Amino acid sequence: MPLSRPRLPRGFSLVELLVVIAIMAALLGLLLSAVQSARETARRASCGNNLRQVGIALHTHESARRFVPAWRKEFSWAEYPKDPPNPNFSVVFAGRTTLGALGQLLSYVDEGRLASLFDMNRGLADPVNLPPPFPRGQNSPACLSPVPLFVCPGTPTGVPSDYGGVYQVIGYPANTPLILPRTDYGPFRGLHPSLAACAGLPAEFTHNAMLGTTDFVNRRTVRFREISDGLSKTLAFVEQAGRQQRFFRGRPLPATAPGGATVLYAFYGDWNVARHARGLSGATDAEPQQAGCAVVNVLNDDNPYSFHPGGVSAVMGDGAVTFMSESIDATVFAALMSRDGGEVAAAP
């Protein structure tokens, strides 16, 4: 009787192997999507917590001093210290203007050491507040330390914040970078005419955002009683992420784009981080500032902008953090922006 041959183990067929690979690829895709979603959730939560701390600082400031800072504070000639003299005062550079609202909150966000390096009774461009290599600069280089609380972790790394060209007017060496610590958050001054028109208002600049003012010498503070629309219905600080790099719908704009690749006002101490929000078309990056009625996550020059899908984080006047949808109606946004417009609008 013939002996039977042992049966060899059967391997995978090509079809079976392809099926297994497809299943593994699908599972890996689901895993990566879940990981990305979890990371974005963590970034958004961290960003919201930053703004919550800013909101708490605003209220702590108000409790201590009975007012909050307007977006800009400029000293009069009469009250400005005369010793040492400052030869750099100019209309162009606003030499008597001190740190903006975020800078004035430094002591209230656990940055008292950093705040102590600045003389808040002098302008930001005063030699007393500037470090070398500024001519006659007397401050410590540590005054240019970054504040992690003011930066959203969802913002791409490597975003520039070079003020060298701006400060040349007061003697900073030409062609020398001056990297100032940046922020992704800021208040607003009010509405740009393009957005005011979308909200059914006269096509004029408004100045009645929560920290808005037109007279930053004589009316450079805001009292909570002036927020007649209610603190819970008025925006205080909003994400305006990514500056100095200009971003249009998530993409960095090239140097050839209208307006170029960068803008100023990225430094947290710069009062110009506060802008007039524009109404934008959002149609094409060939004309990024083309007027329309879109508000959020279109262009980060002047508007609410983030790298979170679907909207931006914001803190209301009462300290509550909210997430504002990028589909928000211009009329609703305008109502939330104004502190005394008399509109009825719920938080976004």
Describe the model.
The structure is a single chain. The chain has 348 residues and is of the alpha+beta class. It has one domain. The chain has six helices and ten strands, in the order H-E-H-H-H-E-E-H-E-E-E-E-E-E-E-H. It has helices at 14-65, 101-104, 112-115, 164-167, 193-198, 330-337; strands at 68-69, 185-186, 188-191, 221-222, 235-239, 247-248, 251-252, 275-277, 311-316, 321-325. The protein has a four-stranded antiparallel sheet with strand order 2-5-9-10. The protein has a two-stranded antiparallel sheet with strand order 1-4. Strand 9 and strand 10 (321-325) form a beta hairpin. The longest helix has 52 residues, at 14-65. The chain is globular. The protein starts with 13 loop residues before the first helix and ends in an 11-residue tail after the last helix.
Instruction: Estimate the strand proportion.
Output: 5-15%
The helix/strand series, from N terminus to C terminus, equals: HEHHHEEHEEEEEEEH
Taking the sheet with the most strands, its summary is: 4 strands, antiparallel
Distance from N terminus to C terminus (CA atoms, Å) equals: 88 Å
Question: Helical element count?
Answer: 6
